[in-house]
Amino acid sequence: MNRALRNAPLAAALLLALSACTPSTPAPSAAPADAATAATPAASAAVPAVDDAEAARMAEQVREATRHAWQGYMQYAKGHDDLKPVSAQPRDWYPVPLLMSPVDALDTLLLLGLDKEANEARELIVGQLSFDQDIEVQNFEVTIRLLGGLLSAYQMTHDERLLKLADDLGTRLSPVFDSPTGLPYTHVNLRTGKTRGKVSNPAETGTLLLEFGTLAKLTGKQAYYDKAKRALVETYKRRSKIGLVGLNIDVETGEWTNKDASIAGGIDSYYEYLLKCWKLFGDEDCKRMWEDSIGPINQYLADEVREGELWYGHADMDSGARTSTTYGALDAFMPGLLALGGDLDRARRLQESNLKMWRLHGIEPESLDYAAMEVRSPGYALRPEIVESAYYLHHYTGDARYRGMGKEFFDDFVKYTRTEHGFSALKDVRSKEKDDSMESFLFAETFKYYYLLFAPASALDFDGVVFNTEAHPLRRTW
Predict the structure, then answer these.
(1) In this structure, what are the phi and psi dihedrals at residue 249, rounded to the nearest 5 degrees?
(2) Is-catalytic flag, 385?
(3) Which of 48, 76, 80, 461 meets the CB 3.0–4.6 Å disulfide criterion with 90?
């Protein structure tokens, strides 16, 4: 989801374009359309018209929004993890800050040609960030945000200090894999290596190979790749007879403790990495696991309501029986993944449902009941997934409709979340009450995908990178 700007320095636009291509094998073919997915969707709703000139103007607006949020961070939260954008106070995840926002933001700032801001972020990182801390961290979030961010920034800048930090972090996180099954524990102390958290989920066990695999390739330390791949494979091996995974799993016994299957949070990026790990590394095991999984997803989780609307709900992992008609902001990544996998029909239809979800209250809720079109979880955390899907669909189809969606999303985003010092999450999309939170993924993902949606395709060599789930672009240079 990154785009270049007409006035962004050429170097920024070309930094990623020098990458080697991903495996040349064609994308996995889409699963055969069943009766439900073959139905004709309702007529598409109108979206704003966006031509190239308007797209360039929107890209510039995204750059200015990114600069505004970064300046707020630097003024009121410099050296900390996040800015609280309403109270203008810093927020840290742990007793010692790990510079979540600077690390998550650096590749976006580089890509957008915000050189001054990128230099500020890099100097903070190399000058202050140390992982030799007696603190317990969540492996998944630290991997996708910090390890992924350091790796992509290293590939864009060739600053060896960033790779050294990534290698140190990878070493300190590695004890999580030392469980009886190879499935990782959820938390680890960065100094002592002590682990805890034996009940995990497929997203946390299976969303590690892009980062650890890239680290392995760049450092020559194969153990990183092998441990993360084993975790992914062990998750896959525990799928049900009908091919679904559940929500919670005990990493010591390998037994499921919650058998709710979906594409929602806790599972979402497991499926994403099955496909993307094949794309980035050419790993045929990942390709096979993806192809084994997408059919059951479409058979048991896809759901059609009303006049051909396509959604993805929840089901029992063993029986496939529908358990709820819940879908939300995190699920909205699925059109992008379907497009990446070659299934543009389902991707287009599901993105129309994303648009309907957004329009219900002028901004998307964390979750809703799509059968009743009623909000279930009313917050809005500044999430990127709906824009990510618009970006993927625009890339693969060239259809200006997806830029039109992006303009509507961005205009609403600015209208309801902008503050004097940044952009604030919402407590309730119905009342638009602000939540005084601005997580680092706003920089890593939301701004990046908005920018890439509107900027020219030359802003990023899409086919030469694979985005991790935090939107850090990783290049196949090995």
Answers:
(1) -140, 145
(2) yes
(3) 80
What's the average model confidence in pLDDT over 293-320? 97
Task: Assign 309 a pLDDT band (cuts: 50, 70, 90).
Answer: very high
- Tokens representing 178 are 């030392």
Could you give the CA distance from residue 195 to residue 183 in angstroms, rounded to a whole number? Answer: 12
Amino acid at 326: T
28-48 burial, b if ≥16 CB within 10 A, otherwise e? bebbeeeeebeeebeeeeebe
Residue pair 202/267 in contact by the 8 Å Cβ criterion:
yes
pTM of the model: 0.91
Let me know if 366 is a catalytic residue: yes
The rounded distance, in Å, linking the Cα atoms of 329 and 358 is: 9
- The tokens describing 83, both together, are 């800015």
Q: Which of 141, 226, 345, 411 is catalytic?
A: 141
CB–CB of 416/363 below 8 Å?
Answer: yes
Spatial separation of the C-alpha atoms in residues 285 and 299, rounded to whole Å: 22
Interacting residues of 426 by C-beta distance below 8 A, sequence separation 6+? 363, 379, 380, 416, 417, 432, 433, 434, 435
Cβ within 8 Å of residue 292, ≥6 positions away: 236, 239, 243
DSSP string, 81-131: SEEETTTTEEE-SSSS---HHHHHHHHHHHHTT-HHHHHHHHHHHHHH---
Contact 428, 378 (CB under 8 A): yes
Question: Got the DSSP string for 36-82?
Answer: HHHSPPPPPPP-----HHHHHHHHHHHHHHHHHHHHHHHHHSTTSSE
CA-CA distances (angstroms) from residue 179 to 171, 176, 238, 442? 16, 7, 16, 33
Q: pLDDT tens-digit profile of 75-84?
A: 999 999 999 9
Query: What is the predicted pLDDT for the residue at 43?
Result: 56
Considering 107, 303, 331, 385, which one is annotated as catalytic? 385
Q: What is the pLDDT of residues 21-55, one digit of tens each?
A: 333 333 433 333 333 333 334 457 999 999 999 99
Q: How many Å apart are CA 245 and CA 133, to the nearest integer?
A: 35
Query: Can you tell me whether residue 176 is helix, strand or coil?
Result: helix
* pLDDT higher than 90, residue 257: yes
- Mean pLDDT calculated for residue range 4-26: 34
Q: What is the predicted pLDDT for the residue at 23?
A: 39
* Single-letter code of the amino acid located at 474: L
Task: Please give the single-letter amino acid code of residue 440.
Answer: S
Q: Give the containing element (helix H, strand E) for 166.
A: helix 160-173
Catalytic residue (choose from 366, 435, 445, 470): 366
Spot the catalytic one: 167, 268, 364, 435. 268
277 close to 296: Cβ distance less than 8 angstroms: no
